[in-house]
Specification:
The complex is a heterotrimer of chains A (about 325), B (about 270) and C (about 260). Chain A is α/β, with parallel strands linked by helices and about 325 residues long. Helix content of chain A is about 35%, strand content about 30%. In chain A, helix 4 packs parallel to helix 6. The longest helix of chain A is centred in the middle third of the chain and has 18 residues, at about 190-205. Chain B is built from 12 helices and no strands. Chain B folds into 2 domains: about 1-30; about 35-265, no CATH class. The model of chain B has no long low-confidence stretch (mean pLDDT about 85). Chain C is mostly helical and about 260 residues long. Chain C has one domain. Chain C has helices at about 1-15, 20-45, 55-70, 75-85, 90-95, 100-130, 140-165, 175-185, 200-205, 215-220, 225-260. In chain C, helix 1 (about 1-15) crosses helix 6, helix 4 (about 75-85) packs parallel to helix 7 and helix 7 packs antiparallel against helix 10. Chain C is globular, with a radius of gyration of 20 Å. The model of chain C has no long low-confidence stretch (mean pLDDT about 85). The chains are: A alpha/beta (about 325), B mainly alpha (about 270), C mainly alpha (about 260). Chains in contact: A-B, A-C, B-C. Chains B and C meet through helix 3 and helix 9 of B and helix 2 and helix 8 of C.
Chain lengths: ~325, ~270, ~260
């Protein structure tokens, strides 16, 4: 049985619209107009144990809402969700003990006390046996490298250190399913890498099922083989990351290193230039025309090196979102 | 049966841990909080001056004399400060957390969210004023001690217990409203203002107001009824209302919380 | 001037946002009033004269206290102190706008909003209980409104003074409640200053807070002679001058300190 089952999930919100200005605000006191927002509009998918899946989509696409539905924080408007065999909105303690949700900026660590204290509180709340607690804590602390800051007040820690401790607090009870909402948001490049490495390692070591949402392609490229792309509440793609390229890119890139300077006019005549800063030159070429243009380039330009590449995932997905290439 | 005992043990353990936590918090990092609780002291002082001024012109108010009313004020303050220390600040924080979305973290824990919301912090800023209020309580007690029938003391204590729980349930009911209306901080303040009615002998109010404050918004049970009983101004019948009231309010509170959570889980974004 | 109007509008709109807040807001002050009403009703069952007041005049006093309270008192101190504590005040300093004038616009918007909320209630009240309430002559009424404006300005300045202490004290919240209670008491909020025991009466008549509440109400109730009114105006103006100077001084020192700490 799949760890996560989602069938025809719909989540609609009613939001009231207010007209701007003084008159509008007084009007809103008397009667309000409501608008229905379809945050999630009929999506279905299954996730097996141990998978590391990424939800990507533009802001407001419905990613966070999906996670909240999966963790039981929100009732679906329609459809069926099952996680670990439980119905999440019932929030049964046995269910809650096996999952964890980490939401970027909204933290659970007590501000004025060292992280160790929150850890111990969670130990009590989750009823983690003493031995297991010590062992898990040791492993997590080693993985994240935070031995020295465990006894420092949370308010004095940097954002990166705080995020690490938040993670530990969320993982002490060894959840089988981990939901991560924008785990690398606000972190610097180094911290982002460390976070991704940790997530990968955690998934590998503990076979935990991990769902993460992000709007950073870097997260997804590094971590997830399988991605679900959500846009405007609809599931636009569900499959291997590598498939996206094959399925949706109707272009390729020809990247050239020039041996000598060439007039831009000449370069432009051969094809559409995506990028040019001597000696690097990149052409944006339709798949069918790749061989033709590659041949022309080799014939007409002083080429030191030539490569034919897939366009970066970011570009493909951006195109997907602007509605050009839905199958 | 064993299950129930285990659940109780679990909650007691977590609660003792929270207490330990909070004491450490105060002692190590926020000792100044103990000093800052001066406001209730000033409040109490102005109240007493007010009463003294009134009584410079009249001998009784609603059939109560000066020291009896001071004693009532003392009881009211002590109960109020106890509730402040144990759950009132938490409920206010809870209303804030609904607004900021931090409440979600509480919902995700495998422990009764109601328990965490109500009792996770002990607010020690009330300690200084608690001592002050207790002093007023004892001093005025000394002045009226002849009037007290010692047989009524057990009843008085039961009343005080009822008072604590009635207070908790009423505030909790109003705090739960924030699960429906995001900005209901004013509702709690509203209740807080209404407790003003409880500082003075209810004899001065109209009968309909008294009924309202006894059965609909039972704040008279915070201090007035316990004190009136002890001083022999009302009969034993009122002792019986107490437990029923607690159970009734408890039920209302339970269902309101339950439906509130459902609403929150449907509508929050 | 335009930008201040814009600020005023925005704050107004923000206040109107929450409907449930609306009604609850109005009921709050009402409760205090009702309690005092019952207390004095009980008092006047036993005596006709409460330190020189009749039930009617005490009732008028209580109503005026509430009216003056919501139309002249605000929580600007807390708002500004929060900005200082969180370090956001720097952003306000960067804007091409005078910070004090900006805060005053917010303050005014708030006060007008409060009055707007209660206008219907007040009118209803006057309609239902005309006998309890008394009205003075027009010139007196005008003088009263002048003092109301004066009280507004004084309260705002006092808020600035309190807020200024946030440059030194991290969290002014609890001591500002304490200050609020004390100044309110000595303004005559709880009971008229002239009913207090002698020592407290003396303190009350010395401090400036009486001019935000007690003194204007006395004017309204036509209980003061020309000499007293004139003297009151002069003393009040002196206090205003003093507090303006204090605010300037405190803020100058405070901002220097704030910048020195490198917020």
């Amino acid at each position: 049985m799949a760890v996560v089952e989602v069938k025809n999930l719909k989540k609609y919100f009613r939001v009231h619209k207010k007209e701007p200005g003084l008159i509008g605000s007084i009007k809103s006191l008397i009667s309000r107009r409501y608008e229905e927002i379809k945050a999630i509009d009929d999506i279905s998918f299954n996730i097996e144990e141990g998978e590391l899946v990424g939800f990507i989509g533009p802001n407001g696409a419905g990613k966070t809402t999906t996670l909240k539905c999966l963790s039981g924080l929100l009732y679906p408007t329609a459809g069926f969700i099952s996680v670990l065999g439980f119905l999440p909105p019932q929030r049964k303690p046995e269910f809650l003990r096996q999952i964890s949700l980490v939401m970027g900026q909204k933290n659970q660590l007590w501000w004025d006390l060292p992280p160790l204290e929150t850890f111990q509180l969670n130990k009590e709340i989750y009823e983690i046996p003493e031995e297991k607690y010590k062992e898990t804590l040791k492993e997590l602390v080693a993985l994240l490298g935070v031995e020295d800051i465990l006894k420092v007040q949370v308010r004095k820690l940097s954002l990166g250190q705080r995020m690490k401790c938040e993670l530990i607090a969320a993982l002490l009870h060894s959840p089988k399913v981990l939901f991560l909402d924008e785990p690398t948001i606000g972190l610097d490049v180094v911290a982002q890498k460390k976070m991704r490495d940790f997530i990968k390692e955690y998934n590998r070591r503990y076979k935990a099922t991990i769902l993460l949402t992000s709007h950073y392609m870097g997260d997804v490229k590094e971590l997830c083989r399988r991605v679900l792309i959500i846009d405007k509440g609809k599931l636009v793609f569900d499959g291997q990351l590598s498939q996206i390229t094959q399925k949706y890119a109707d272009h390729k890139l020809i990247s050239v290193i020039l041996a000598q300077e060439v007039e831009e006019k000449t370069l432009k005549s051969l094809g559409e230039i995506k990028e040019f800063s001597f000696p690097k030159l990149v052409y944006f070429v339709k798949r069918e025309e790749v061989s033709k243009i590659a041949a022309k380039v080799l014939e007409n330009l002083p080429v030191a090196d030539l490569n034919i590449e897939e366009p970066p995932i970011e570009d493909i997905i951006r195109e997907l979102f602007t509605g050009k290439n839905y199958a | 049966m064993k299950q129930l005992v285990n659940r109780i043990k679990y909650y007691l353990r977590v609660y003792f841990f929270l207490v330990k936590f909070n004491v450490m918090d105060i002692l190590i990092y926020r000792a100044n909080a103990l000093v800052m609780g001066l406001a209730p002291v000033v409040w109490l002082t102005t109240m007493l001056i007010f009463l003294a001024t009134i009584f410079s012109q009249v001998k009784t108010l609603g059939g109560w004399n000066f020291w009896e009313i001071v004693f009532l004020t003392g009881v009211h303050e002590v109960i109020f400060l106890l509730t402040w220390a144990t759950f009132l600040t938490n409920l206010r924080k809870f209303v804030e957390e609904i607004k900021t979305g931090r409440f979600d973290q509480i919902l995700l824990k495998p422990i009764s969210s109601r328990f965490l919301v109500s009792f996770r912090n002990l607010d020690f800023t009330s300690v200084g004023s608690l001592l002050n209020a207790f002093f007023v309580f004892c001093f005025s007690l000394g002045k009226i001690i002849e009037k007290i029938d010692f047989l009524k003391i057990p009843g008085f204590l039961i009343f005080l217990l009822v008072a604590y729980f009635v207070c908790y349930f009423i505030y909790f009911i109003f705090a739960s409203l924030s699960l429906f209306f995001i900005n209901s901080k004013t509702f709690i303040d509203w209740v807080f203002d209404a407790t003003d009615f409880d500082r003075y002998p209810a004899e001065i109010y109209t009968p309909s107001l008294r009924i309202f404050l006894t059965f609909f918004l039972p704040i008279l049970f915070f201090a007035y009824y316990p004190t009136a009983y002890l001083l022999g101004k009302i009969g034993e019948e009122y002792l019986l209302i107490g437990p029923f009231l607690v159970i009734g309010l408890g039920l209302i509170s339970h269902f309101l919380w339950h439906f509130g959570l459902q609403h929150y889980q449907s509508a929050s974004s | 001037m335009r930008k201040y109007w814009a600020i005023f509008k925005a704050n107004w709109q923000a206040s109107v946002e929450y409907r449930s807040e609306f009604i609850a807001h109005i009921i709050r002050g009402l409760i205090t009033f009702v309690v005092l009403f019952f207390i004095f009703k009980a008092v006047f069952l036993q005596t006709n004269n409460f330190a020189g007041y009749t039930f009617s005049s005490i009732f008028t006093y209580l109503v005026m206290v509430r009216i003056l309270h919501f139309s002249t008192r605000g929580n600007t101190a807390r708002l500004i102190a929060d900005e200082i504590r969180q370090g956001i005040i720097s952003f306000s300093f960067l804007k091409p706008i005078n910070y004090f004038k900006y805060q005053f616009s917010l303050f005014l918007a708030d006060r007008l909003f409060e009055i707007f909320l209660r206008i219907f209630l007040i009118l209803l009240f006057l309609f239902l209980f005309p006998s309890y309430f008394s009205f003075p002559s027009l010139p007196v009424l005008l003088l009263f409104f002048l003092f109301l404006l004066g009280a507004l300005v004084f309260n705002f300045l006092f808020n600035l003074l309190l807020a200024g202490s946030a440059f030194w004290v991290t969290d002014i919240r609890l001591f500002s409640t304490f200050v609020g209670l004390t100044t309110g008491f000595f303004a005559g909020e709880l009971i008229p200053l002239d009913t207090l025991p002698p020592i407290l009466k003396k303190i009350g008549f010395f401090l400036p807070f009486q001019y935000t509440l007690f003194f204007p109400i006395k004017i309204y109730q036509e209980s003061l002679g020309y000499k007293e009114i004139l003297r009151g105006i002069l003393v009040f103006l002196l206090w205003l001058g003093l507090i303006i100077w204090l605010v300037r001084f405190l803020w100058q020192k405070g901002v220097k300190r704030y910048e020195a700490v490198g917020q």
